[in-house]
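hey can u run this one w/ alpha-D-galactopyranose bound, need the structure tokens asap thx
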Amino acid sequence: MSDQVSAVGDGFAARHGRRPDGVWSAPGRVNLIGEHTDYNRGFVLPFAIDRRTVAAVGVCDDRVLRVSSTFTEEEVSLAIDDLSPGAMQGWSAYVLGVAWALSDEGHDLSSAPGLDILIDSRVPVGAGLSSSAAIECAVAVALNDLWDLNLSPLDLARIGRIAENRAVGAPTGLLDQAASMLGREDHGVFLDCDTEEAEPVALHLREEGLEILVMDSRVEHEHATGGYRDRRDSCEKGAAALGVSTLRELSEDDLDRASAALDEETFRRVRHIVTENARVVDTVRTLGDSGPRAIGALLDASQASMRDDFEITVPEIDLACATAVENGAIGARMTGGGFGGSAIALVPADARSDIGSAVTSALASAGLREPHLFTVTPSEGARRDI
Ligand code: GLA
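ok here u go:
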């Protein structure tokens, strides 16, 4: 049992005067490749990281959900029968939203008992590593067990996404919740967002002496508003103009036609999605045929496409990626929704600290904000810990 799990169990006991009935946890994620492809029903290849959100939960003899956390004083209570998107605000919407999504999807909660829920998170917030999905998925596995719902990990990921879309109001795809639910040690999750079929893909990082260095730009992003939503709109506009229901239906052979039919900006948005889907499939194939040292060019091409075609990177991320590659990284790219957040570099373990120092000095010399640098390992998805 991790120190985080036992600390949250003890914290629950101190707060509620009894032990929790169980402790569940779920990780944040890094997306190795496949950005903004999920809501276009394309391909993604994320992995779950070794930073988790923990939920200690105790059953009550009423029908009230009481949510508290180790990161704010605020405690929120809401009766199960009063759950509705309008009744939830702030961070507790990630918790209560999951309960609401279950009832909205037709699961019978009429005899579900109330719960005391204590949340603790070690997934950095605002870094683009899906701290919100980690909360949703930790809560989803807990509710699944305590309310005897018998849902599959993929069903629970879908419930988490519904909470995020309709209770929190961020129009995101399934990427984050699928990674958090389905992650496995040293594996990526290859997800087809059209069929929603997922397959583990061995990454072999440790055997190859490689690490994933996260370079958090510390530029804050927000997906409920702004650029993320605009990019979604552009994708829908492009698909409609080209007569397809999703951009997933297009291949690189369609790009000439797309270029003739679309305005210049919409064409670049479409080209990012089409080429990014191809890069995800190539990355999966290359990992299987030649191993992780061979995927650098695909990561770099993805970064260039996000920078030039989809325009979702920021100067901090572009410089961090370029500097990492110039100093020996195998490849580097932004990860997550963009407009801030983090980039990742695939680095030889013995070069990590030199690459990190080069990135920090390059950003300082350019007068940009100092990044937070740390490594993550592909880890297990959501689970019951106690
Ligand atoms: C955010 C969203 C995901 C996905 C990525 C971009 O992380 O939550 O659904 O769209 O951005 O790939």
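The first strand starts at residue 22 and ends at 33. anyway lmk if its weird
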